[in-house]
Amino acid sequence: MAYYGGWILLVVLSIWAALIAFVWAVRSGQFSQQGRARFLPLIDAMPGQASSQEPLPPSRGGYVLVFILGLGAAGMLCAVILSLYHL
Amino acid sequence: MELLREEPHGTTKAFYLSSAVWMVFGTLAGFTGAVQLIAPELLGNIPWIVFGRIRPIHTNAVIFGFVGSALIGSAHYLVPTLVRTPLYSERLGKITVWLWNLAVVLGTLTLSLGFSQNREYAEWIWPVDVIVMASLGLGFYNLLQTVKRREEEILYVSVWYIFGAFVFTAFIYFFGNAMWNPFTGSITGIPDGILAWFYGHGVVGLFLTPFAVAIAYYIIPITCRAPLYSHSLSLLGFWSLLMIYTHIGTHHILQAPTPTWLKVIAITGSIAMLVPVAAVLINLWLTMRGRIPYILGDTGGKFVLAGTVWYLLTCIQGPLQALPVVQRITHFNNWVVAHAHMGVLGFSGIIALGGIYFILPRITGRPLHSKFLADMQYWLVLLGMSGFFTVLTAAGLIQGHGWLNGETVYRMLPEIHPYMVLRLSVGILIVSGAFIGLYNIYMSLYGFKTGRKAS
Ligand code: HEM
Ligand code: HEM
Fold first, then answer.
1. Per mean pLDDT, which range of B174-178, B438-442, B450-454 is the poorest?
2. Could you tell me if residue B452 is inside a domain?
3. What is the pTM of this model?
4. Residue B16 resides in a domain
5. Which sign does the torsion angle of CA B272, B276, B279, B285 carry?
6. pLDDT tens track for B341-355
7. Cross-chain Cβ contact A36/B312 below 8 Å
8. B425 C-alpha to center of ligand 1: Å?
9. Pick from B366, B221, B247: which is nearest to B305 by CA?
10. Subunit contact A79:B320, Cβ cutoff 8 A
11. What is the pLDDT of residues B12-57, one digit of tens each?
């Protein structure tokens, strides 16, 4: 039981930290101007970086990623089948 | 003092170099552990690298040393850039870097001497914990002061994730390491198991994940030259991560006599994790819709894209393996080791590398030393990771299936031996990738001084 005190402290502290951040965010207008916020990283584009008007470069690397997704799906399917088999 | 010399982006540069060094060291330690799982006697029982010591040396070096350094280094670039204000203090930043490295060095040395708190990812002893906390505190203070002086009023979602990561990590690190008990770093009984896994999952979910997501949210829009699909959705993802990830740690100990209500929270929370994960991935993928070739054409962007693919897999696998019926097959065996490498290397590690390669040219003002070597590292790590996934998942399923059929643990060992040999072989790819990365990152940072021309 002795540990309850510490845990309650942890829960209370975390909730307070989150609430303070949230209230600050609402008050300082962090949830307004969401449309403009979408563009914030783009200001860091390197000088000389090609613009979005340029044609897309050809690339096959994406197929490898799709293959990895397939591999992962197969692994998970095996686990589900085995767990159902042992039900 | 030379070590604390102030230079533009000095903090990020130092964190990146540290990360590259720890990647080499950490993967070599993993490799040593893998050798022992094949031939336990080969290394002759040298005390400071026996499996029980080299394993936590490996996990802590890669989590905090390799991935952690790269992520925190990128945070020291992203926050100032996104709030359009220089970093408050490069000197403080350098102190943060040195403390962080001191912690990893001391943690490694003390582990190899046999001093351990014996709880996963919380093995480092109390004095090391104090240094970690000090470093986190300084990093937080430095970035907070930067944000206070900001030119840009609106905080982009990456800034939220970065601050979230600092605060969450400090919380879970202090409580999870039971720092008020310096001699044991733990409490007692089942509550300690619960606390340990509240921390253990926090390390991956509240330290690595938010930093890595912050980097992805930053790099993807730039590389695909399009604004983020929805900033509101991204904020929803952030707040839901905060609400859900914080209390699912017990899914690691569903097989232990923890209270049922806690297990229910952990399992339902694990499934609810699909919300913050989907918020991130749908947002990023809608941002890059039709523009993936641009991302694949950028060295850093390519790493980040691959990281999001592993993130998807890890986070579909996670809720699935939190279901008790599935966990009967997957728990306590190599399946979880596969999941761990997918999350820590495939997702956060690969995104951490993406951050380095994307940001390095921006802070040095020169192209990477070699784009070719970076591409080579990409393929080596990606192939190695896919190999790890396949081999360890297969080995785990064989173990789980065998055990449920009533086989004893030792009788299953010969069955998985070939897989352990394969894991070692595949590991060579990742270790080689780490060496190439160290060379390339070092040369990108300092190569020009030695007269070599950047490619
Ligand atoms: C930078 C890349 C790597 C990262 C981020 C990483 C991360 C991890 C993590 C998080 C664990 C803990 C797994 C768990 O408790 O479930 C682990 C365990 C392990 N890793 Fe790695 N690892 C990396 C590379 C490697 C390499 C190259 C090898 C060697 C071939 C390796 C071999 C091992 C071994 C042998 C274990 C212990 C597994 C066991 O106890 O059965 N790792 N690694
Ligand atoms: C939706 C999100 C996720 C869920 C629901 C989830 C769930 C789980 C569960 C249930 C386990 C315990 C498996 C067992 O022992 O039987 C586990 C282990 C683990 N997870 Fe995840 N996971 C998620 C995402 C991640 C991510 C993003 C990472 C890495 C950044 C990660 C890293 C790990 C590691 C390192 C372990 C091994 C811990 C050990 O040593 O036992 N997970 N996860």
1. B450-454
2. no
3. 0.95
4. yes
5. negative
6. 999 999 999 999 999
7. no
8. 14
9. B221
10. yes
11. 999 999 999 999 999 999 999 999 999 999 988 899 999 999 999 9
Residue B59 Cβ inside 6 Å of ligand 2? The answer reads: no
Of A31-35, B25-29, B160-164, B397-401, the one with minimum mean pLDDT is A31-35
Question: Tell me: the pLDDT tens digits for A3-56?
Answer: 677 778 888 888 898 899 999 999 999 999 899 999 999 976 555 454 555 566
Distance from the Cα of residue B450 to its chain's centroid: 32
Count of structural domains, chain B? 1
Containing structural domain, residue B169: 2-444
Does residue B232 lie in a domain region? yes
Q: Name the minimum distance, in Å, from the CA of B314 to any CA of chain A.
A: 9
**What is the distance between the alpha carbons of residues B211 and B78, in angstroms, rounded to a whole number?**
10
Ligand nearest to the CA of B197: 2
Q: What is the CATH number of the domain that holds B52?
A: 1.20.210.10
| ipTM, 2 dp | 0.87
All residues at 6 or more sequence positions from B365 whose CB lies less than 8 Å from its CB, including other chains: none
Contact A65 B400 (CB under 8 A): no
Tell whether B453 is covered by a domain: no
Q: CA of A3 to nearest chain B CA: how many angstroms apart?
A: 8
Of A28, A57, A82, which has the smallest distance from its Cβ to B329's Cβ?
Answer: A82
Closest among A52, A76, A16 to B339, alpha carbons compared: A76
Query: What is the best residue among B194, B201, B246, B317 to mutate for testing ligand 2's pocket, by most ligand atoms within 8 Å of CB?
Result: B201
Per-position DSSP letters for B97-162, written without gaps between them: HHHHHHHHHHHHHHHHTT----STT--S-HHHHHHHHHHHHHHHHHHHHHHHT-S--SPPHHHHHH
Q: Which residue's CA is minimally distant from atom 38 of ligand 1?
A: B337
Q: What is the DSSP letter of B313?
A: H
Distance CA B25, CA B288 (A): 35
CA dihedral sign, ordered B139, A30, B148, A12: negative
Distance (Å) of CA A81 to CA A74, A87, B110? 11, 10, 44
How many Cβ contacts (< 8 angstroms) between chains A and B? 149
